[in-house]
Amino acid sequence: LEGEREETRLHLAAIDTAAETERKATQAERARWAAEMEDAARQKASLEAVLASTQRDLQRLGNAISAINERIQEKESEIIDMISKVRIAEENAATADNEAEHLRAMLAESRMRYQRENEEALRVVRQEHDETVVKLQDLREHDNKVSTAQIEDLEAELANRD
């Protein structure tokens, strides 16, 4: 009987040791999962900060486009005013012919110069806008993939352990 008691005691001690080992392994695994969740949260926060910055960049680009459009309208008004002056000068005496010709040349040069400058500025702004939109879409896709996949994986692992 004493031998059976000793054997039972040793068997229970082995079970207790195995249970303690399993408990420690489970705690370590949960700690690892918690660290991975914190890392995923930090990555998400970082991506959200980049997203916010990109959105601010888009807002600035939108403001720049608006400012360029205002400049274009101002220049168009100036050109219209110049055209009016040219027509008035042409209606005046023959002595105004030279001045009208000079104003036409200035107007044509101004139109071409402003047209080139405005087209180039609009092209650059549109290109930057397009690049920023692509970056924003890439960030959103990456953010969705990383955050959703990591959280689902961690939740699945935690559910499997429980």
Offer a few descriptive terms.
single chain, 162 residues, rod-shaped, 2 helices, mainly alpha
The helix content is: over 70%
Shape: rod-shaped
Largest sheet, described in full? none
Q: Give the strand tally.
A: 0
How would you state the average pLDDT, rounded?
87
Distance between the termini: 39 Å
Q: Determine the strand fraction and express it as a percent band.
A: under 5%
Q: List the uncertain runs.
A: none
Q: Can you count the helices? A: 2
Class based on secondary structure composition and strand pairing: mainly alpha
Q: From the alpha-carbon coordinates, what is the Rg to the nearest angstrom?
A: 37 Å
Q: Give the SSE order as H and E letters.
A: HH
Short recap of the structure:
It is built from 2 helices and no strands.
Description:
The protein has 162 residues and is mainly α. The protein has helices at 2-91, 97-161. The longest helix is centred in the N-terminal third of the chain and has 90 residues, at 2-91. It is rod-shaped and about 140 Å long.
Element layout with pairings:
Layout lengths: L1 H90 L5 H65 L1
